[in-house]
Amino acid sequence: MQFPFLSVIVFTPLVAALIILMLPARRKDLVRSVALAAATLDLILSAWVYLTYLLQGMDGYQFVEQYSWLPTLGISLHFGVDGMSTPLILLTGIVMFTGVLISWGEERNGVSAGIQDRPREFFAFLFILASGVFGVFASLDLFMLFFFYEIAVFPMYLLIVIWGWVVTREYAAMKLTLYLFVGSVISLVGALAMVWTAYQNTGVLSFDLLHLEQAGFSAEFQRLWFLPVFLGFAVLGGIWPFHNWSPDGHVAAPTAVSMFHAGVLMKLGAFAALRVGIMLMPQGAKEWSWLILGLATVNVVYGAFIAFVQTDFKYVIGFSSVSHMGLVMMGFATLSREGLLGAGLQMFSHGVMTALFFAVVGMVYDRAHTRHIPDLGGFAKVMPYPAIGFIIGGLVSMGMPGFSGFIAEFPIFMGVWKTQWLIAVIAAVSIVVTASYILIIVRRVFFGEASEVLLHHHVGDVTPLDKLAIVTLCAFMVGLGLFPGLMAPMVGRGVDYILHLLGGA
Amino acid sequence: MLLAILPELLLLVLALLLFIVEPFWKGEHPRSGWVTFYGLLLIMIVSLIFGTPRASQEAFGGMIRFDWFAFLFKMLFLFGAALTALFFMDHPLLSKRGEAYLLLLAATLGMCLMASASDLVMLYLAIETTSIPLYVLAGFFLNEQDSTEAGFKYLFFGALTSAVMLYGLSLLFGLAGTTALAALGEKFASGQLSLQVAWGILALVTVGLAFKVSVAPFHFWAPDVYQGAPTAVTGFLSTASKAAGFAVLLRLFLMAFPSAQIPWPLLLAILAALTMTIGNLLALPQTNLKRLLAYSSIAHAGYILIGVVAATELGMTSVTFYLIVYLLTNLAAFGILMALGKVLGSDEVTAYNGLSRRSPWLALAMLVAFLSLAGMPPFGGFVAKVFVFAAGVEAGYIWLVFVGVLNSIVGLYYYLNVMKYVYLYRMPGEEEEKHPIQLSQATAWGLGVLILGVILLGTVFAPWFTFSSQAAQAMFLP
Question: Domain for residue B111, yes or no?
Fold first, then answer.
């Protein structure tokens, strides 16, 4: 019996949330310290899981734990990670850690950065959400997957509506919650249908994903149910035309929540779509891959163009997320080794990158009180760390070699080229558009002449904790770009398993 | 034999005891409340130790069935009544009047009989024993127009629908020559009774039962009655009374009308879809929280019906599980409303502005209760909904399950909307936010137990599921 790493990772935030709720509301720094301690613990544990998986042969599902939960219906608390989900566990650990750092903030002469209003409730809700996210990535049981999935969705509403951007928070929070809930309940019906059909086919009633993989769903069943299940989850992955909640949600959310939201939650949707949609119904996936590919292409190109014309700093990043998540979906839709490998890497790379983007946007906004790009300028002088961080993130976003974006996007395009070269050509347009809006932001916001805002508001530098967060995120992006061998083989093993389910395609 | 009605007997003893000693007590101290609460707890414990059914058996010449189904529901009613007694004590008017507790006990007695009745005569008597005390309780505040209106409306609708049902039951007896549910079921199954007649009878009986569980189109009384009745009474009315209605409905439909011959599931499926949709859509524009919860409780009746429609063992299990969850969650919700209504002086949602700053724990309790109603994990509501939907899918009612899941989205909208007032908006005078809301000890304990229960039901659901499944199995045994 080894140490139950995954359970500890999943339930640490939940326990921390309960402890935080017990603390007196006045002692804000105590609340933050407990939060940071829990986040650090989770980061260390997830890094440990990652390294152990990497060094121990990367074979199938590791760290497996199974506790019978409701034997009558075949529900068990079944955790385990493979090459696809291990990087995502690490990603969640990173984003959680940096999210807490960013939210610490400061409150002095007119600057109110981070979370100053009711931090106790903020961290409690944020950690409940984190628990749900870890749970989905680690679950090998369909019931528990839904259980954690919903836990990851509902705190979002409160986090956005209470601490969000005053102008749009009520609208955006409700829109986001309803979109995600619609998606998840439709998937739920499909999942229930799967479980009962598997029961008829095999005579064993079980929610276990490994069991359902072997259930032998008929081609007709898969044709019927693949789309509702896949698209239901893909709503959270931001697939066009159901992406509408995402930019609004990103913009309205407070900084740490935007980081979580774009960095991790959208991967949650993509991952669940892959795990439940493609891996349980490979036949259906093959039949519908043309549609997914088409929708994802719209995501990639349309998202990039919309991002290009935004004047709100945060909306640019919001739409760029839609565009980049399109690449993930595209990689899925190819159902090929290259495409899936790229998609797996892109999930991690984009998660870190977009978390960094939102962190930087938050730092700028908290001090400048505006996100209108034409009003900004010259910020590199006063806040060098965010500026450098943003440039590194931008290079990742453009897919520059030497950064994590390149090793993720390149295989995706290879896979798409093999499947349908025309799509690859169309999608490649987005790279150019992405490069232009990133460079425009870099020039206007961070360089150029010192703006009115900068002089008027006495904008100061960010706190040391903010810098630590930026450095952490950048380290992962550069590190992965220089040493793709740290992750690519691992994701490759995960892809092998998916291809095996797809019948060696 | 007497073990079969042990809780009922003890309830009668408790009620009589209270009846005799209560007039001699004077003063402000809510002694009757504590006597009722501890008495009910004691009855639960005694019944759990001595009164558990060994196997399903009939008692009193087939009037009563003594099985796990009846037992589980009895425990549920006793628990609900005990917590309602705690909430009664919080109200200055209810706590001083011993009659309130007496009526509560009488209604609980009726509900216990409803859960175990297996004969048309017993069934009807039990329903009336439950209803009449509840009519009085709903109109308990004679000086308040809303309350008297609620009481009268409840009485009027209740009397009308129960007369219709009684007519149906009498037809059933006239044609079959028996009032025992099991014998009726056999006659239908063997084709001795014409099935065309069965449809007519079914329609009449459904009217009465649909009223009790507030299923559309017989739900019109619910919002007015829930809003007008004292909040603690509303809590009892919307939970225990509804659960009792479902117990009778399950018993009657499963035993007397074999679904193989008479396809009543289809009829109930249509009613379920109608109920969910009407309840949820009408809850959207409500600004009064009691009224909002009234419509939400109509919607929940619809979700529960999905499990009934499935008419399988899993279906019955999920219905029982759902009712357990629903009883705890809704009692908690109404308990919070009652405690706050007293302080804030209003049930309007705008009165809840700034609650989380004023009383973070109460806000959190409200969040748990409302999210559980919306069907969010890790609270009981999520698991209950998934089980009901699973039963629906298993039985092949995919369309109904889709109606259900889409409705739960509408539900989520208005539940979350309330939380926006609690967590986001500020009170007009921000000074007032600094005064925390004091709860009486009884209410605090009651709410604590309920919230903890809601979380337990949503996380460690296996034992509760096993109990429910044991109860459901009893329904399918001869």
Answer: no
Domain count, chain B: 1
Q: Is residue B406 part of a domain?
A: yes
B465 and B321 in contact (C-beta within 8 Å)? yes
Question: What is the C-alpha R_g of chain A?
Answer: 21
pLDDT of residue A71: 84
- Asked if A478 contacts A403 with a C-beta cutoff of 8 angstroms, the reply is yes
Measured between alpha carbons, how far is B294 from B299 in angstroms, rounded to an integer?
9
Which pair of structure tokens corresponds to residue A253?
């959310």
Q: Which of A72, A143, A185 sits opposite B408 (nearest CB)?
A: A185
Q: B35 lies in a domain?
A: no
Nearest to B420 among A25, A170, A185 (CB): A170
Residue B435 pLDDT: 76
Model pLDDT for residues A317-373, shown as the tens digit of each residue: 888 888 889 889 988 888 888 889 999 999 999 999 999 989 888 888 887 777 887
* Residues above pLDDT 70, as percent of chain B: 97
* Whether residue B147 has pLDDT greater than 50: yes
Residue B126 has pLDDT above 90, yes or no: yes
And the tokens for A210? 């490994």
Can you tell me the distance from the alpha carbon of A57 to that of A331, in angstroms, rounded to the nearest whole number? 25
CA distance B310 to chain A (A): 14
Q: Specify if B458 maps to a domain.
A: yes
Asked if A151's CB is within 8 angstroms of B377's CB, the reply is: yes
Chain B residues with CB under 8 Å of a chain A CB are: 356-357, 360, 364, 367, 371, 374, 376-378, 382, 386, 389-390, 393-394, 398, 401-402, 405-406, 408-409, 412-413, 416-417, 419-420, 423-424, 461-462, 465-466, 469
Q: What share of chain B is helix, strand, coil (3-state, %, to 5)?
A: 80, 0, 20
pLDDT at B274 over 70: yes
The contacts of residue B92 (CB under 8 Å, 6+ apart) are none
pLDDT of res. A505: 45
Task: Report the alpha-carbon distance of residue A232 to residue A235 in Å, rounded.
Answer: 6
Distance from CA of A225 to the nearest CA of B (A): 12
- Domain enclosing residue B471, as ranges: 276-478
Read off the pLDDT band of A243 (50, 70, 90): confident
pLDDT at A448 over 80: no
Which residue in B394, B419, B465 is closest to A70 by CB distance? B465
